[in-house]
From TrEMBL:
It comes from Acidovorax temperans. It comes from the Bacteria. The keyword Coiled coil applies. This is Mobilization protein. Residues 4-31 form a coiled coil. Keywords: Coiled coil.
Amino acid sequence: MTSINAMKKKLSQLEAEKAAIIAKVSETARKNADARKYALGGALLKLAATDPRAYEVLKQAWAMGQKDKPRAFEDAIIPTQVKTRQQGDIK
């Protein structure tokens, strides 16, 4: 009888360890996804300051639901107007 109780106790410990590992992996995966979104959003913000097409893409992304916005969009201010390049500047 004691060996059954010992096995149940060990199984319970293993289940707890398994749950802790799964939680850690999930947290790491979420952080990695957030980092990718933040990097993409930051790059787009830099481009939007000088490129009208990037600005339009940024406006579309900003118009998306709050849940889907990369954190970089929340941390930054969209420029109200982007300077358009003159045709002489485009080669």
